[in-house]
Amino acid sequence: MKTILVVDDSRIMRNIVKNTFTALKIPCNFIEAGNGREALMMLQNQPVDLVLLDWNMPELSGLDFLKEVRGMEQYKTLPIIMVTSESAKYNVIEALKNGATDYIVKPVNEKIFAEKMTKIVF
Hints:
Blueprint: E1 2-7, H1 11-23, E2 28-33, H2 36-45, E3 50-53, H3 62-70, E4 80-84, H4 89-97, E5 102-105, H5 110-119
Parallel strand pairs: 1-2, 1-3, 3-4, 4-5
């Protein structure tokens, strides 16, 4: 079973993401972090198969987390999908340029979410 790290400072948003997986009948385990700094610690203590990452968070933003993780050799191929309300084309380009695997704009559309998860081999 896949393990997914859901990183968002909103507990409600983390629950929405988890519930979307349940609705799509995609079995997986979840670990959660409320900011990028917490997520880094979790990532180093537990192997994960996918990171779903918000952009705007306290302590360490999603973009800064992404840059830091992509700088670590062991995480170069880890799928990291930005799930954020930052919808400007500039933000999408910035995230992809810094190593995001894909980009989903909130509010999460279940059909788009399912398509993107299928690409990641779920």
